[in-house]
Known about the structure:
The structure is a single chain. The chain is built from eight helices and no strands. It is mostly helical. α4 (74-88) runs antiparallel to α5 (91-104) and α6 packs across α8 (143-152). The model has no long low-confidence stretch (mean pLDDT 76).
Amino acid sequence: MKHSTNPQTRRGHRGGPARRIGRTLALVLPVVLVLSGTLAVTRVNWTGSPRNSVLTATDVTDADVSSKAVSRAPQDVLREQLMTELQDKNPGQVLTHLQQAVNSHPSLAQHCSSIARALGRAAVRIYGASRAQSYARPVCDTSFASGVLAAHS
Length: 153
Protein backbone atom coordinates (compact mmCIF):
# COMPACT_ATOMS: atom_id res chain seq x y z
CA MET A 1 0.00 0.00 0.00
CA LYS A 2 1.33 3.36 -1.03
CA HIS A 3 0.90 6.35 1.33
CA SER A 4 0.66 9.90 0.12
CA THR A 5 3.00 12.54 1.48
CA ASN A 6 0.55 15.33 0.68
CA PRO A 7 -1.29 16.23 3.96
CA GLN A 8 -4.46 17.34 2.19
CA THR A 9 -4.78 14.06 0.34
CA ARG A 10 -3.96 12.06 3.43
CA ARG A 11 -6.65 13.78 5.59
CA GLY A 12 -9.15 13.98 2.81
CA HIS A 13 -10.30 17.50 3.77
CA ARG A 14 -8.85 20.95 4.32
CA GLY A 15 -7.95 21.75 7.91
CA GLY A 16 -8.90 20.08 11.11
CA PRO A 17 -10.40 21.20 14.42
CA ALA A 18 -7.37 23.33 15.27
CA ARG A 19 -7.68 25.25 12.03
CA ARG A 20 -11.42 25.84 12.59
CA ILE A 21 -10.73 27.10 16.12
CA GLY A 22 -8.02 29.38 14.78
CA ARG A 23 -10.37 30.85 12.16
CA THR A 24 -13.09 31.36 14.75
CA LEU A 25 -10.68 33.14 17.09
CA ALA A 26 -9.40 35.28 14.24
CA LEU A 27 -12.95 36.49 13.61
CA VAL A 28 -14.23 36.74 17.20
CA LEU A 29 -11.19 38.11 19.04
CA PRO A 30 -11.10 41.53 17.32
CA VAL A 31 -14.82 42.00 18.00
CA VAL A 32 -14.34 41.16 21.68
CA LEU A 33 -11.39 43.53 21.96
CA VAL A 34 -13.30 46.40 20.35
CA LEU A 35 -16.33 45.86 22.57
CA SER A 36 -14.27 45.63 25.75
CA GLY A 37 -12.40 48.80 24.79
CA THR A 38 -15.67 50.61 24.15
CA LEU A 39 -17.04 49.52 27.50
CA ALA A 40 -13.83 50.60 29.23
CA VAL A 41 -14.11 54.07 27.69
CA THR A 42 -17.67 54.47 28.99
CA ARG A 43 -16.45 53.71 32.53
CA VAL A 44 -13.82 56.49 32.56
CA ASN A 45 -14.52 59.57 34.65
CA TRP A 46 -14.64 62.23 31.93
CA THR A 47 -16.28 64.84 34.18
CA GLY A 48 -13.25 65.47 36.37
CA SER A 49 -15.50 65.25 39.42
CA PRO A 50 -14.22 62.79 42.06
CA ARG A 51 -17.69 62.48 43.62
CA ASN A 52 -19.20 60.57 40.72
CA SER A 53 -16.14 58.71 39.53
CA VAL A 54 -17.87 56.24 37.22
CA LEU A 55 -20.02 57.25 34.28
CA THR A 56 -21.76 54.38 32.57
CA ALA A 57 -23.70 54.29 29.34
CA THR A 58 -26.95 54.09 31.32
CA ASP A 59 -26.02 57.30 33.15
CA VAL A 60 -25.90 59.12 29.83
CA THR A 61 -29.35 57.80 28.98
CA ASP A 62 -30.65 58.85 32.41
CA ALA A 63 -29.24 62.33 31.91
CA ASP A 64 -30.97 62.60 28.54
CA VAL A 65 -34.28 61.51 30.05
CA SER A 66 -34.04 63.92 32.99
CA SER A 67 -33.13 66.79 30.66
CA LYS A 68 -36.40 66.22 28.80
CA ALA A 69 -38.27 67.38 31.92
CA VAL A 70 -39.65 64.01 32.83
CA SER A 71 -41.33 64.51 36.18
CA ARG A 72 -40.10 62.32 39.01
CA ALA A 73 -41.93 61.46 42.17
CA PRO A 74 -41.24 63.88 45.05
CA GLN A 75 -39.93 61.09 47.28
CA ASP A 76 -37.40 60.10 44.59
CA VAL A 77 -36.21 63.68 44.28
CA LEU A 78 -35.89 63.95 48.06
CA ARG A 79 -34.04 60.63 48.31
CA GLU A 80 -31.56 61.71 45.63
CA GLN A 81 -31.00 65.10 47.27
CA LEU A 82 -30.39 63.54 50.68
CA MET A 83 -28.05 60.87 49.27
CA THR A 84 -26.03 63.60 47.58
CA GLU A 85 -26.03 65.64 50.78
CA LEU A 86 -24.77 62.61 52.70
CA GLN A 87 -21.55 62.79 50.66
CA ASP A 88 -20.75 66.22 52.15
CA LYS A 89 -22.53 66.29 55.50
CA ASN A 90 -22.82 63.93 58.44
CA PRO A 91 -25.87 61.67 58.71
CA GLY A 92 -27.23 63.67 61.64
CA GLN A 93 -27.63 66.77 59.49
CA VAL A 94 -29.13 64.74 56.66
CA LEU A 95 -31.65 63.13 59.03
CA THR A 96 -32.63 66.60 60.26
CA HIS A 97 -33.29 67.65 56.66
CA LEU A 98 -35.35 64.51 56.10
CA GLN A 99 -37.46 65.27 59.16
CA GLN A 100 -37.92 68.89 58.03
CA ALA A 101 -39.00 67.76 54.56
CA VAL A 102 -41.55 65.34 56.00
CA ASN A 103 -42.84 68.01 58.39
CA SER A 104 -43.28 70.53 55.59
CA HIS A 105 -44.71 68.00 53.10
CA PRO A 106 -46.81 65.45 55.03
CA SER A 107 -47.41 63.42 51.84
CA LEU A 108 -43.76 62.32 52.10
CA ALA A 109 -44.39 60.65 55.48
CA GLN A 110 -45.30 57.32 53.88
CA HIS A 111 -41.89 57.26 52.16
CA CYS A 112 -39.88 58.46 55.15
CA SER A 113 -38.98 54.97 56.39
CA SER A 114 -37.65 53.74 53.06
CA ILE A 115 -35.62 56.92 52.56
CA ALA A 116 -34.18 56.69 56.09
CA ARG A 117 -33.25 53.01 55.58
CA ALA A 118 -31.49 53.89 52.31
CA LEU A 119 -29.61 56.67 54.11
CA GLY A 120 -28.60 54.20 56.85
CA ARG A 121 -27.21 51.73 54.30
CA ALA A 122 -25.34 54.52 52.51
CA ALA A 123 -23.95 55.85 55.80
CA VAL A 124 -22.45 52.43 56.55
CA ARG A 125 -20.66 52.48 53.19
CA ILE A 126 -19.30 55.95 53.90
CA TYR A 127 -18.61 55.91 57.67
CA GLY A 128 -18.56 52.26 58.70
CA ALA A 129 -21.17 50.52 60.84
CA SER A 130 -20.27 51.76 64.33
CA ARG A 131 -19.83 55.40 63.33
CA ALA A 132 -23.00 55.36 61.21
CA GLN A 133 -24.93 53.86 64.13
CA SER A 134 -23.80 56.74 66.35
CA TYR A 135 -25.93 59.10 64.21
CA ALA A 136 -29.11 57.02 64.58
CA ARG A 137 -32.10 58.74 66.14
CA PRO A 138 -35.85 58.28 66.02
CA VAL A 139 -36.55 59.78 62.61
CA CYS A 140 -39.22 57.81 60.75
CA ASP A 141 -39.55 55.14 63.45
CA THR A 142 -35.81 54.43 63.70
CA SER A 143 -35.61 53.35 60.07
CA PHE A 144 -32.13 54.84 59.74
CA ALA A 145 -30.89 52.46 62.45
CA SER A 146 -32.54 49.49 60.73
CA GLY A 147 -30.83 50.50 57.47
CA VAL A 148 -27.48 50.58 59.29
CA LEU A 149 -28.16 47.17 60.76
CA ALA A 150 -29.23 45.71 57.42
CA ALA A 151 -26.09 46.98 55.71
CA HIS A 152 -23.84 45.75 58.51
CA SER A 153 -25.18 42.20 58.71
